[in-house]
């Protein structure tokens, strides 16, 4: 008989886990702002909070697939799990629904008051796939709201804050590959605020100054909002700079409120640094292609030697290295002498060309330097004679390192920088404290000077012609461009305007009393430009007296350190940097910084009120007649019928502006927040300033402006051409000057001797006054401590001056005949070699006629004066007046000086580290 067997089958129950979760965006905890009576986030029928209960199943036996359970439905309760609290279908604050994925959900269409938090309970029903019975899980979640507090705000970086763009790793021909995104996000606690409740501003650090990003920034890709703010994501074009420092600042705003005008919480700031850089250079080696082995039979033959330069950087071999590096091939002989034999990734030569012999093995090797590009050098490259560069590199970081400094040197040896002045306000140091830049009395005078320039070594290729291009390039490290090597500019400061002479020394300060000789009254009793209680630039100088007044600061007056007469080389380097900054050589454009106190610009009908001009009315009721300073009015200055031009009538050619008056009047405007295009009073005179198109403005932090002042003279006694006394009813004079990033660069008015280091020797072959065919040989010295102070200025032919025999002065060429506009400037000078162009081109005007009064057979050193005068029609930042000997003096000839700084002088000067403070102005 068969026996029955009992089999026990054990089925383990499913493990279930569950939780309430949000579908999409939202939060169980809201924030309520008492500022704008708004919830964050805010829930409504349009944008509800969507929640569900998720149930996950896990089978210990492994029969059932693990994962989320399929829900049959979810019942929802408020506050307590009981039938009376179940959410009904008709409750308008809630909607029981199904998501697009078929999941049961609850849409919460109401905000939770701060004082009414509530418990949301969900019972999720599902069918147990093992038992085929319906089961449920209950979950609950507190919905609440807290008050929004400003202290909960934080601004966070939403992208890396340090970004390096390596052009060797990208296809740099595609502009999209150069674009870099930097992101920030404003949060309240852990909640990210939407654009409706967050306002963002982006700033860029320009030198020492941090300013708002604007659409004039060529590297900007992002379009700003209509109110000048930006989205939280900023896109920049890294091909337009070598490094850039950005800041994002933010503020909270209510949805219905206007955006704040500026950030109010300094703590809400994130900084970013983006730089373009080549990988770390490791080595450059020669890879032989042909002619690697030379036998004795090859000596003196045309056997080909060909090699390639292989550059390793960043742990890898750089492809197409010639794109990123200048490669120079050098051949070094057995005796150690070497020569350049070619350029580029590949070199081809021969045994014969290299001069290889049994006793002269030649080493062929490449040397490399980072090639010009936005990652290495900044500056301008010009094609042709146009004043606007064909293209530029960088964001003018070198120009932005220029600045004005208050300097003292009490012992004639040691130079101390008291502090850096604000870029737009020389009445204050950069840290905001008052600066003693105004001297009110001799007793108050401490011998300080305001000087301008770089306080670190800068490297440059100065307005040089390289191939078919003209370049003006700068870098903080040595560099090379197409075989042309940069030269260093030691830390040097120059006078930013025309100096006075006080106690036998040049001074660059603003004096509110008559501290030294200078200025002159005009004819007919005109004293408007010769105030007895103010100090004017010292004129009537020669190059020799300019030298004397400069080195008078030094303990050893036979030396040219630390102080020296103004070297045109330093002045031109600053000029080149500013031309780079503003993107044109034509800074003296009447629609840019203007032509200053000159006669460049026709006055026409007189409708242009921003140019230097004079008008007169002989009789009441007459029309105004407008003239340039170079023109003569119809009346005479004496009974003998003597006529004069306006420049002579007003001040006998002497300066019209007091020392540093331009910069201090603009500083006053910045100090007091005076808007452009309105009259304001400063130091007893009325002024008006005008912003420069495309340039950062005075109130935005940079001293870029045209400054005008007007003088009126009524009932002036004069004579007619017959010698009869007359009364000129009315005369009006408009004087226009400018500051170019703080420099009085193109205001003209009078000449300035800037001949230190640039010597021109005229060989007299034609003694005719005004002749322009005499050869003029030019010499250049870039080193301040090597300057000559020798006062010899005329010798017999074939005799040499001291500098012509000195290794410190280099012969750089002979000027062509004739005065005029010249291009192809000799490197480091304003001396051109090709007569071509106009006032509006990339040229320099050279007046090189002979007014030396020297006989045939003599050689004479020529003075070197720049700027231009009131009667000049060629005044510009590159004008040079070289037609008289160094000893020549006249009324419109001022001087200049500079001071050489030891390296690292600026280390403690970014703020006013001394106890110096400004005295109150009268």
General description of the model:
By secondary structure, the chain is mostly beta strands. A hairpin with a 2-residue loop joins strand 45 (680-682) and strand 46. The protein is flat. The termini are far apart. Residues 904-922 have low confidence and may be disordered.
Give structural attributes.
six-stranded antiparallel β-sheet, 37% strand, seven-stranded mixed β-sheet, 61 strands, 922 residues, mainly beta, disordered C terminus
What spatial form do the alpha-carbon principal axes imply?
flat
Estimated share of beta-strand residues? 35-45%
* N-C termini distance: 134 Å
Discrete helix count: 5
Portion in helices:
under 10%
Tell me about the biggest sheet? 7 strands, mixed
Rounded mean pLDDT score: 90
Radius of gyration: 38 Å
Please identify the structural class as seen in this structure. Answer: mainly beta
Give the strand tally. Answer: 61
Low-confidence blocks of residues: 904-922
Strand order of the largest sheet: 55-54-56-59-58-49-60
In short:
Helices cover 5% and strands 37% of the residues. The protein contains 5 helices and 61 strands. Strands 55-54-56-59-58-49-60 form a 7-stranded mixed β-sheet, with no helix packed on it. Strands 30-29-32-38-61-42 form a 6-stranded antiparallel β-sheet. Strands 44-43-48-47-46-45 form a 6-stranded antiparallel β-sheet, with helices on one face.
How are the SSEs placed, and which strands pair?
Blueprint: E1 15-22, E2 29-33, E3 38-40, E4 49-58, E5 67-68, E6 71-78, E7 94-98, E8 104-108, E9 118-127, E10 134-147, E11 153-157, E12 162-165, E13 179-188, E14 191-192, E15 198-206, E16 209-212, E17 233-237, E18 243-252, E19 269-276, E20 281-290, E21 304-313, E22 316-317, E23 325-332, E24 338-343, E25 346-350, H1 351-354, E26 363-370, E27 378-383, E28 391-393, E29 403-408, E30 416-420, E31 438-439, E32 449-454, E33 458-466, E34 469-475, E35 480-481, E36 484-485, E37 487-489, E38 492-494, E39 500-502, E40 505-507, E41 510-511, H2 543-551, E42 563-565, H3 568-582, E43 613-617, E44 625-627, H4 646-651, H5 661-671, E45 680-682, E46 685-690, E47 705-719, E48 725-739, E49 751-753, E50 758-763, E51 776-780, E52 794-796, E53 810-815, E54 820-825, E55 832-835, E56 844-847, E57 858-861, E58 865-866, E59 880-881, E60 893-894, E61 897-900
Parallel strand pairs: 2-10, 12-19, 31-41, 49-60, 56-59
Antiparallel strand pairs: 1-4, 2-3, 4-5, 4-8, 6-9, 7-8, 9-10, 11-13, 13-14, 13-17, 15-16, 15-18, 18-19, 20-21, 21-22, 21-25, 23-24, 23-26, 27-28, 27-34, 29-30, 29-32, 32-38, 33-34, 33-37, 35-36, 38-61, 39-40, 42-61, 43-44, 43-48, 45-46, 46-47, 47-48, 49-58, 50-51, 50-57, 51-53, 52-57, 54-55, ...
């Amino acid at each position: 008989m068969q026996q029955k067997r009992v089999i026990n089958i054990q089925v383990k129950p499913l493990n279930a886990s569950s939780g309430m979760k949000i579908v999409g965006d939202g939060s169980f905890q809201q924030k309520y702002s008492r500022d704008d009576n708004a919830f964050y986030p805010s829930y409504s029928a349009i944008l509800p909070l969507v929640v569900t209960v998720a149930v996950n199943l896990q089978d210990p036996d492994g029969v059932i697939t693990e994962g989320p359970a399929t829900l049959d439905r979810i019942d929802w309760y408020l506050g307590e799990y009981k039938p009376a609290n179940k959410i009904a279908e008709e409750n308008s604050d809630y909607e029981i629904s199904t998501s697009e994925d078929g999941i049961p959900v609850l849409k919460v269409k109401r905000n939770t008051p701060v004082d009414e938090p509530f418990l949301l309970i969900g019972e999720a029903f599902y069918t147990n796939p093992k038992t085929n019975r319906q089961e449920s899980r209950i979950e609950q979640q507190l919905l609440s709201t807290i008050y929004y507090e400003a202290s909960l705000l934080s601004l966070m970086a939403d992208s890396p804050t340090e970004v390096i763009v390596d052009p060797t790793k990208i296809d740099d021909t595609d502009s999209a590959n150069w674009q870099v995104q930097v992101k920030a996000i404003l949060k309240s606690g852990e909640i990210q605020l939407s654009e409706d409740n967050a306002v963002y501003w982006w700033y860029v650090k320009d030198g020492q100054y941090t300013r708002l990003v604007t659409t004039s920034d060529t590297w900007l890709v992002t379009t700003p909002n209509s109110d000048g703010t930006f989205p939280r994501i900023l896109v920049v074009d890294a091909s337009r700079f070598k490094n850039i420092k950005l800041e994002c600042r933010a503020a909270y705003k209510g949805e219905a409120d206007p955006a704040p005008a500026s950030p109010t919480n300094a703590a809400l700031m994130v900084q970013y640094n983006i730089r373009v850089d080549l990988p770390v250079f490791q080595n450059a080696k020669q890879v032989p292609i042909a002619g690697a082995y030379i036998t004795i039979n090859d000596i003196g033959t045309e056997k080909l030697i060909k090699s390639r330069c292989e550059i390793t950087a960043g742990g890898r071999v750089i492809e197409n290295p010639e794109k990123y590096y200048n490669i120079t091939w050098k051949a070094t002989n057995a005796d150690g002498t070497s020569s350049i034999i070619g350029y580029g990734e590949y070199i081809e030569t021969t045994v014969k060309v290299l001069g290889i012999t049994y006793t002269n093995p030649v080493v062929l090797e490449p040397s490399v330097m980072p090639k010009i590009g936005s990652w290495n050098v900044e500056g301008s490259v010009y094609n042709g004679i146009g004043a606007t560069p064909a293209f530029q590199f960088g964001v003018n970081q070198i120009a932005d390192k220029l600045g004005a400094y208050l300097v003292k040197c009490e012992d004639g040896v040691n130079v101390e920088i008291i502090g850096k002045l604000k870029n737009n306000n020389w009445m204050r140091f950069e840290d905001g404290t008052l600066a003693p830049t105004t001297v009110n009395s001799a007793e108050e005078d401490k011998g300080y000077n305001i000087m301008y320039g770089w306080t670190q070594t800068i490297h440059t290729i100065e307005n040089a012609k390289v191939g078919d291009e003209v370049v003006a390039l700068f870098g903080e490290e040595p560099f090379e461009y197409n075989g042309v090597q940069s030269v260093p500019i030691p830390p040097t400061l120059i006078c930013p305007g025309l100096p006075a002479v006080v106690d036998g020394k040049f001074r660059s300060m603003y004096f509110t009393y008559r501290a030294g000789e200078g200025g002159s009254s005009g004819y007919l009793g005109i004293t408007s430009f010769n105030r007895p209680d103010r100090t004017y630039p010292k004129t009537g100088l020669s190059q020799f007296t300019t030298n004397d007044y400069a080195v008078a600061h030094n303990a050893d007056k036979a030396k040219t350190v630390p102080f020296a007469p103004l070297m045109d080389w330093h002045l031109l380097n600053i000029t080149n940097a500013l031309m780079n900054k503003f993107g044109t050589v034509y800074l003296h454009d009447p629609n840019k910084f203007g032509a200053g106190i000159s006669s460049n610009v026709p006055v026409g009908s007189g409708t242009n009120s921003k140019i230097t001009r004079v008008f007169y009315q002989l009789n009441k009721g007459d029309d105004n007649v407008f003239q340039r300073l170079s023109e003569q009015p119809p009346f005479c200055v004496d009974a003998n019928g003597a006529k004069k031009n306006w420049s002579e009538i007003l001040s006998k050619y002497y300066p019209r502006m007091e020392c540093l008056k331009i910069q201090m009047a603009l500083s006053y405007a910045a100090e007091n927040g005076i808007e452009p295009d309105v009259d304001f009073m400063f130091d007893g005179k009325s002024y008006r300033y005008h912003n420069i198109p495309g340039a950062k403005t005075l109130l935005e932090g940079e001293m870029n402006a045209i400054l005008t002042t007007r003088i009126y003279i009524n009932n002036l006694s004069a004579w007619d051409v017959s010698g009869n006394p007359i009364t000129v009813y009315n005369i009006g004079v408009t004087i226009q000057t400018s500051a170019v990033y703080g420099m009085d660069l193109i205001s003209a008015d009078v000449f300035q001797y800037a001949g230190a280091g640039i010597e021109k020797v005229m060989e007299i072959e034609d003694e005719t006054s005004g002749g322009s065919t005499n050869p003029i040989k030019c010499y250049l010295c870039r080193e301040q401590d090597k300057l000559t102070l020798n006062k010899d200025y005329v010798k017999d032919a074939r005799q040499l001056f001291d500098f012509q025999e000195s290794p410190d002065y280099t012969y750089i060429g002979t000027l062509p005949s004739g005065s005029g506009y010249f291009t192809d400037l000799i490197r480091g000078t304003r001396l051109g070699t090709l007569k071509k162009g106009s006032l509006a081109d990339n040229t320099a005007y050279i007046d090189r006629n002979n007014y030396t009064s020297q006989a045939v057979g003599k050689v004479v050193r020529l003075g070197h004066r720049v700027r231009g005068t009131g009667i000049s029609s060629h005044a510009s930042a590159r004008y040079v007046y070289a037609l008289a000997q160094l000893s020549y003096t006249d009324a419109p000839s001022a001087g200049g000086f500079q001071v050489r700084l030891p390296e690292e002088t600026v280390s403690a000067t970014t703020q006013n580290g001394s106890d110096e403070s400004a005295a109150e102005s009268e």
